[in-house]
Amino acid sequence: MHLDERRRGMPRLARTLAARILLAVLGIVVVTLAVGFALFARLTSQTADERAIEQASGIAVTLGRVPQVAQAVVDGDPSHVLSALGSQVRASTGASYVVIIDRTGRRWSHPNPALIGQRVEEPVMALDGQVHTGIDEGSLGRSANARAPIVDAAGRPVGEVSVGILESEVSGRLDAEVLDIALYAAIALALGVAASLLLARAIKRVTFGVEPAEIVALVQEREAMLYGVREGVLAVDAKGAINVLNDEARRLLGIESASLGQRVEDVVPDGRLRRVITGEIEGVDLVAVTDEHLLVLNRMPVLVGGRGVGWVVTIRDRTELEALMRQLDSMEALSTALRAQEHEFSNRLHVLSVLLELGEVEEATRYSEELQAETALVSEEIRARVGSPVVAALLLAKTTVAAERDVVVRLDPASRLEAGHDAELPVVTVLGNLVDNAVDAVADDSRTAGTHPRGEVLVRIEGTADALLLTVTDTGPGIPAERLGDVFVDGYTTKKPRGAMRRGVGLALVHRLVTRAGGTIEASSPAGARFEVRLPLRVREVVT
After folding, report:
1. Beta carbons within 8 Å of 354's beta carbon, 6+ residues apart
2. How far apart (Å, rounded) are the C-alpha atoms in residues 382 and 380?
């Protein structure tokens, strides 16, 4: 599904990353401000109450120690100075009320003139000589209240002064700070919005504009694809670190223990395989041979937003298919040779038939004996020197196929191989590939075009006490001296492709088999190509 189709199918609020980040940041900021404002209001209210109680206590204690106030309370305020004094103190200090009470509970001053002269309902608490503070639910409303004793000249309590600051005044002080809080909240919200937009922009730049829901879908699709295909997939970032590696790639490359984040150089051994993966060797359908597999690799760069972010290597296992194609190619060549022989045998039988019809029995007998001797000559020569039936059959088959390409395959008279001497050794595969390469080199040599035969391939097999020696020499064009070190490299070939069978694989496979068997193989070109193989009879690893 295309990204635009996914965007149309997503809910509106979840459509863009910027909107989601903005909503999240705004939510966090709003909740943080609300909690902070609640705590601030509570602390401010408590502090204001404490300050109001402290202020009320100071006013009450100061007024209660004035001698004229004590005298007026004792005398019953005949001059009505207490009411005026209370109003004056209230006006100068900002108190909500100043109430002067005698020891009997009669009020001598009050903000409400109607209550002057009336008694308070609660007892006169300050007669104990202490200052009492608290929050009072008085007739004027809830207030921070302080009650201090009025003492005479002898220090005896004769009444009390009750001073209060209404809660409305405390709230007014708090309201005066609301504008500052609102300004701070607005600045915080603006910074949150700006930060969210910048964060969303930075994230989208890193994710190439892909939204979270799309990233989830892409990850799910990638996992399904990587582990659902039968090809190996290896993805490497621009720094050379592995960031995608499916199970098939681990198996084919032999790096089951590799982990994401490692560099290719740290997990893949040096050689053609690693050079193909890193891009040192470029091309399409490049071949690389490991100890277990014949691999075909393709390396493609990954571009996102016009920028190179790495490359992806696909790996296909062509081991079985390549083996089948080589067998098919061998069978096709053998079939062609058999058809040619069938035609030749038909001609010979026709000659015999005519001789018999003419009554030339002796001549027919002589001709039949010649044919039998000619056919059995090569077979008997090979069987006399090669005791292994499998190796002998291989040489006979290669001789027949090569003859149809006008190439002679001969067994060196010095060859000797006893039966069982080739047990547990990859002789058939190694010798078959070397002979095939030699026959191809001779048959394709333009220098011998029109000659008969075109050239010769000499095979020597010799068994010693501790090793089996194989030598294949041809009269073809040979190998350039500067390329002798490359003949065993995967993909190296001087031949033209034939059908779907890949070139540059046979000698690489031979080299792997010989190395795994603990042997050695050397190439030289004295006059044509020469390959010498030594396979030890005692091997650590059984190769089939």
Report:
1. none
2. 5
Q: Phi/psi class of residue 66: alpha, beta or left (left: φ > 0; alpha: ψ in -120 to 50)?
A: beta
Rounded to whole angstroms, what are the CA distances from 410 to 176, 289, 430, 472? 114, 31, 17, 10
Q: What is the pLDDT of residues 67-81, one digit of tens each?
A: 888 888 888 888 888
Nearest CA-CA partner of 416 in 449, 459, 379 = 459
Which residue in the block uniquely carries the two structure tokens 């989601």? 20
Render 375-388 in DSSP notation, one character per residue.
HHHHHHHHHHHB--
Task: With H, G, I as helix, E, B as strand and everything else as coil, classify residue 242.
Answer: strand
* Alpha-carbon gap, residue 412 to 418, rounded angstroms: 15
Model confidence band, residue 474 (pLDDT cutoffs 50, 70, 90): very high
**Look-up of token digits 């891009």:** 279
CA–centroid distance for 174 within its chain: 56
Token pair 């030749």 is found at 344
pLDDT in tens, 119-164: 888 888 888 889 888 877 655 566 788 899 998 888 889 999 988 8
Q: What is the mean pLDDT of residues 199-227?
A: 69
Pairing of strands 407-411, 455-463: parallel
Q: Which two tokens stand for residue 337?
A: 């040779």
Q: And the tokens for 533?
A: 């193989």
For residue 241, the model assigns a pLDDT of 86
Contacting residues for 480 by C-beta, under 8 A, at least 6 apart: 525
